[in-house]
Amino acid sequence: MLRLNSRGHFFSFDRPVIMGIMNVTPDSFFDGGKYQGLSAILEHCRKMISEGADIIDIGAFSTRSNGAIISEEEESDRMLPALKAIRKEFPDILISIDTFRQNIAYQSIEEGADIINDISGGTFDHKMIPYIGRNHIPYILMHITGKLETMHHEDIISGKVCEKVKRFFECQTEKLHEFGEQQIILDPGIGFNKSIECNFELANKIDEYRISDLPVMIGISHKSLIYKTLNITPEESSNGTTVMNTIALMKGADILRVHDVKEAVETRILVGKSNI
User: Fold this and answer.
1) Strands, E, within the chain: which ranges?
2) Which residues contact residue 263 at a Cβ distance below 8 angstroms, ignoring those fewer than 6 apart?
3) Does position 128 have pLDDT exceeding 60, yes or no?
4) Which of 3, 8, 83, 136 is the most buried (most CB within 10 A)?
């Protein structure tokens, strides 16, 4: 289960954690542009927290296929006002920042963020691992291959995915451990440069790539393996998301990263009852 030390506080959870997604982008694949302006952002955060979110994950850079690569300055201009407002309004909530840029991570931590959620696992910005390592910041290390520009189009994994993800985790955690004990959360990167079959395997075989008994986060909400398999749209994939989140929890996921908090909390309760 998840245990974190941040801002002088110790956070401990005895059940799976729900991370609510707060996109402040105009172009994310599912909810891009939906929450523009601080009042809309705060209202959505209030809703997610009231529904049971344990962590709010703020993203200012869309990683959808064919998404625009924005500058660091633009990412910062989107991120920081939202972070400051959320931290002021909800001083006790854990806040994660979805970024692969070390400078954005630094700015965010200085403004009260607790966790850095890096889709590149430290591979897109060579300064990220030393920064996280030296400061022992809670860090979500996601598996990915290739570069930012090619992550959805090249180096597509179609076999031995658990083995490849595990080797990546071992390599990147070793780099972090060179700076001392770390607070690491593993994310297999479902939906990023992997075949649909491999994405299903990652949701179903969590313990095959978990290392050192570290917590694992599954981010499968409204992703293409669901809507492409069912031949529906992302907006129609709420039921499929709940099914996949159920499988992930039953296979040992420690964190669910979701758009729909209420449904995820209900899933956690029912899975918990069924495991008694």
Assistant:
1) 3-6, 9-12, 17-23, 55-59, 94-98, 115-118, 139-142, 184-187, 217-219, 255-258
2) 238, 241, 242, 245
3) yes
4) 83
pTM above 0.85, yes or no: yes
Q: Which residues are catalytic?
A: 223, 257
- Give the list of residues 6+ apart from residue 53 with CB closer than 8 angstroms, or none: 18, 19, 20, 93, 261
Report how far residue 169's alpha carbon sits from residue 14's, in angstroms, rounded to the nearest whole number. 24
Per DSSP, helices labelled H in 64-195 are 72-89, 102-110, 128-135, 161-177
Long-range contact pairs involving 211-214 (C-beta distance under 8 Å, separation at least 24): 211/166, 211/169, 211/170, 211/173, 211/186, 212/173, 214/169, 214/173, 214/184, 214/185, 214/186
pLDDT above 60: residue 142: yes
**Average pLDDT of the chain to the nearest whole number:** 92
Residue whose pair of structure tokens reads 């110790």 in the numeric block: 10
pLDDT of residue 29: 47
Q: How many other CB atoms sit within 10 Å of the CB of residue 158?
A: 10
202 touches 209 (CB < 8 A): yes
Tokens of 192: 């990023």
CA atoms within 13 A on the CB side of 61: 21
pLDDT of residue 65 exceeding 60, the answer is no
Q: How far is CA 237 from CA 33, 225, 242, in A?
A: 19, 10, 9
Confidence of residue 74 (pLDDT cuts 50, 70, 90): very high
